[in-house]
Design a protein that fits this description.
The structure is a single chain. With 150 residues, the protein is mainly alpha-helical. Helices cover 56% and strands 8% of the residues. It is built from four helices and four strands. 9% of the residues are buried.
Length: 150
């Protein structure tokens, strides 16, 4: 039972996830600090509040609602999401797109039989409908890594 637990903990994806969570929490702390230090005071100046906007609150009866904290957290979230998207997600998508291999299956490519005009696979050497011999398409054979003359 302990061997299974050890195998689970030492798997690459579990360790990577733990590192990602640690880096993510540190990044969140930096963004939250930036938001509290610069963004919320600017919003406070723009809205006429004095000092830190995160201290803004209103009360109904004896209940206090610190809405500035909620707005401050929402701003930190939007900044974090924006930075992660524009600096990590979008560039990684472009890198993956650039290095992605063409995954088209050559066996699924079709063409018409020159004798009976039925649809047949591009690599076929004989029509399944009229049994006429046909030449396979050379470019499809190259995609599959087969010699041009079969």
């Amino acid at each position: 039972m302990l061997n299974g637990f050890k195998d689970f903990i030492l798997r690459g994806n579990v360790v990577s996830m733990a590192i990602g969570l640690a880096v993510g929490s540190a990044f969140t702390a930096v963004v939250t600090g930036f938001s509290k230090a610069f963004i919320t005071p600017l919003i406070g100046l723009a809205t006429g509040s004095v000092g830190d906007f995160s201290e803004a609150k209103f009360s109904v009866g004896k209940t206090i609602f610190p809405y500035g904290l909620a707005i401050s957290a929402a701003i930190a979230f939007v900044i974090t999401a924006g930075v992660l998207y524009f600096l990590i997600v979008a560039p990684m998508a472009k890198v993956q797109e650039r290095f992605a291999k063409e995954e088209a299956d050559a066996r699924s490519e079709k063409r018409d039989c020159p004798h009976c005009f039925s649809e047949i696979p591009a690599i076929a050497t004989r029509c399944a409908h009229c049994t006429s011999e046909v030449e396979p398409v050379a470019t499809t054979l190259e995609k599959m890594g087969l010699p041009a003359a079969r």
